[in-house]
Amino acid sequence: MKRIALDMDGVLADTYQQYQHFEEKNKGRRKDPASLTGLSEFEAFPDAPVYLLQEGFFRTAPLINNCVEVVRKLNNSYELFIVSSATEFPQSLTEKQAWLNEHFPFINWRQMVFCGSKTIVSADIMIDDHFKNLDYFPGKTYLFTQPHNALADPGKHQRVSGWHELERLLL
Amino acid sequence: MKRIALDMDGVLADTYQQYQHFEEKNKGRRKDPASLTGLSEFEAFPDAPVYLLQEGFFRTAPLINNCVEVVRKLNNSYELFIVSSATEFPQSLTEKQAWLNEHFPFINWRQMVFCGSKTIVSADIMIDDHFKNLDYFPGKTYLFTQPHNALADPGKHQRVSGWHELERLLL
């Protein structure tokens, strides 16, 4: 059974919607979504470092469309690990685990990895929205489209634009 | 530079001393240390599952002798990751990171991995006190002696009985 290392933020958790929500809560207005494409998250939301430290940012993040139903199927056909960068923001650790337990009750604690660098991950397939994680991975890599990577050449990675596309490719 | 995956509980954190401390706090007496050898941790301390959920168990654990000075040197000669089973006990996540930050300030967040199963770890060397982690690791493995494994045949793993021995072997 092949092993998948699956990212959380920007792949399962809709980080951009959460940035917009915190932008509105903190500043009273949302960004024009069209203005975000091609910018890094911190360029698009200069106050992101503040939002990431606010209580609930990770715990209340909305879900990326269709991810729960497809992850449930992947979990039956692959050895699935959720691998999330979390140690940079210590308060995110328990928030992320509680979020996973709420939305993905079929994923157990043995399948969760909270780390800083993903270079230590051994798997056959990695699904992530960041080149910094995919570039060092020796296996098959899927670049999950998010505004920050939407204009970039995916290079050796296979771009996927949503969970139904991943479902067609992997199931 | 070779990569080391280094366990926390029973290798950096003196889990047995902490069990004894909680045993005394909860029951008014410590176990005879000689009675613990060869038993699993849960056989040796039947109330361990309760203690592991009590606030501070991971945050206030004492250090294994000499570990800080040797880990500091390893950190200069190897690509070092601290890889700790933590997701089974969600409250341990932030306690473990705070503990590492306190005692190992030279270890940064990129070097920390909190997981459930260590089968996903890619490294050259693993140092751990549990066969369940070492047995699936394809690289060089060191079995760190603790009472629960003290009577076991180390098999393909190299037994080490403390941090000065690891220092001689690795530095």
Could you explain the architecture of this structure?
The structure is a homodimer of 171-residue chains. In chain A, α4 (67-77) runs parallel beside α7 (163-170). Chain A has helices at 15-27, 41-44, 48-51, 67-77, 92-103, 131-134, 163-170; strands spanning 3-6, 79-85, 112-115, 125-128, 140-144, 158-160. Chain A is of the alpha/beta class and 171 residues long. In chain A, α5 (92-103) links the parallel β2 and β3 (112-115). The first copy, chain A, contains seven helices and six strands; from the N terminus they run βααααβαββαββα. Helix content of chain A is 33%, strand content 16%. Chain A is globular, with a radius of gyration of 15 Å. Chain A binds chain B through residues 3, 5, 81, 83, 86-88, 90-91, 93-94, 97-98, 108-117, 119-123, and chain B through 3, 5, 81, 83, 86-88, 90-91, 93-94, 97-98, 108-117, 119-123.
